[in-house]
Model the fold of this input.
Amino acid sequence: MQAEHISPAVLSPTVRAEKRGMFGTLRRDIASVFERDPAARSVLEVLLLYPGLHAIWGHRLSHWLWTHRLKLLGRWVSQLTRNLTGIEIHPGAIIGSGFFIDHGMGVVIGETAEVGEDVTLYHGVTLGGTSLNKGKRHPTLGDRVVVGAGAKVLGAITIGEDTRIGANAVVVKSMPSNSVVIGVPGQVVRRSLPHHAGDAPDLNHTTLPDIVGTTLKQLLERVDSLENRVEGHEVQKLHIHAPDGEIWEGQDFSI
Done:
């Protein structure tokens, strides 16, 4: 892998993993399963039945081959792992320790992707490229990032540490640390209570603010208020107006 693909943000976890040693990194990968999946009951179960663990261990082998000039063999190992797990990780990708893929089917991680430590991905996630250039074209994820089911993170962008990306979000621009990212295209909501390195993993990737719904509600409330002011009394609404709680009210209509 070319040196220009490696950013300081991801060199740090790589160096830490090297200092931890191979067996230390493997133990950390196992521990990450118990930290982030309450269904895990024993080490034997995790070793035998967790495709996310098999995928990251297959990647660690293929990445070693890739960086030691055995690129064809590295690609072969990565494709074998893909066939066995349904998770495709290019051997050129840089992935820190404590990486966890929950369920995992359909996860794709591109060649120049760079992933920090203690990152969590759910099924259907893509860390994809948006360029035909052979240089950096895939995302960089900081430490403790969580990417929800079905989310797509595309291009040579950077996702700051402790950021949570909501399920099915499409992220095409860099995001600051300690953000919640939702929607298509991804919109940033800064956390009111920041997540820190020592906190429990933040896996609530379905706890997402409804920015569009809240904005529409405020606009409709304003329209209702203006109509009442103009008419001098409450008038019958011919448009869909502000919801009462979670229920939107309005005329019946057909499509």
About this structure: Residues 1-11 have pLDDT under 50 and may be disordered. The domain at 3-190 is CATH 2.160.10.10 (UDP N-Acetylglucosamine Acyltransferase; domain 1). The radius of gyration is 22 Å.
